[in-house]
User: What shape does this take?
Amino acid sequence: MDNYKPFWVSVQAWGVKKQGGWYNTGVQKIILYYKFTPITDPEAIRLWQRTLCEKLHLKGRILISVHGINGTVGGELDDVKQYVKETKQFGGFKDTTFKWSEGSRDHFPKLQVRVRPEIVSFGVADELKVDATGVVGSGKHLKPTEVNELVNRYGDDVVFFDGRNAYEAAVGRFKNAVVPNTRTSYDFVTELDSGSYDNLKSKKVVTYCTGGVRCEILSAMMKNRGFEDVYQIDGGIVKYGEQYGDEGLWEGSLYVFDDRMGLKFSDKAVDIGECIHCKAKTSNYENCALATCNKLVLICETCRQDTAKLFHTEVCQASAKTGANA
Ligand SMILES: [Zn+2]
Ligand SMILES: [Zn+2]
Assistant: This one.
């Protein structure tokens, strides 16, 4: 999955276990990064990264494939700095951008370093080509200001294309964005091949996702399928939001994969999602209270006060009552 949990978290650990003993820690940090670069021996990289993280007592998740590396790790500041320094010593990772974020190693259950067919799972491992400059044939990178310039200049000829899952787009998206019907990133191939978006092939298409990694691949997939003029936003919605907040072309909240589920860039953020019960505007996601259903649905702050409405349908509520799934 391309969805991993710990983003902008601010948990400060008071004590951690290190080399058999407990003691108070200093400042901890999390870093997020990805790098598309050819890797001839992913297993060797995995062993090296695993040993490095263990040496520095980092926890988190790192995926490695023949296309590159995608990771999030946390630990003590000095250890994380050392991790960055040593990771950059591998030629292909030299100019990787590491995004620093609040958080600690204990936000992760453990250290996972794995070799996978893809570092972001679109199901296009064989299609994706990577060289020393990154993904071959991906969309042109735009800085947030360049996104607005493009729209100012070309107006309706610019189309935003959401590179995330439909439930992420339900609470926040660029104005007038096209939102494909996707439950996971694997659904993009089918969506693009369906012909539903062929009318966009001659337009200027700006793909966007949370931090940009998904669009590196999606924009290349689109160009491979005949979309002529494809762009991607440098640093994704996060960077755009840092620059424009709710004063630009973005609308709503940014879905994040942690307990908060939605980030608002300012108190001017609007709710664009709809409560499944009363249709009121909301950005509040809940999992259906029936454990065996657990479906992620939008339930407004008023409805969520009613325990019956924490079930996403009456059927789910009824099966909880009969104890069938209790
Ligand atoms: Zn409601
Ligand atoms: Zn349900």
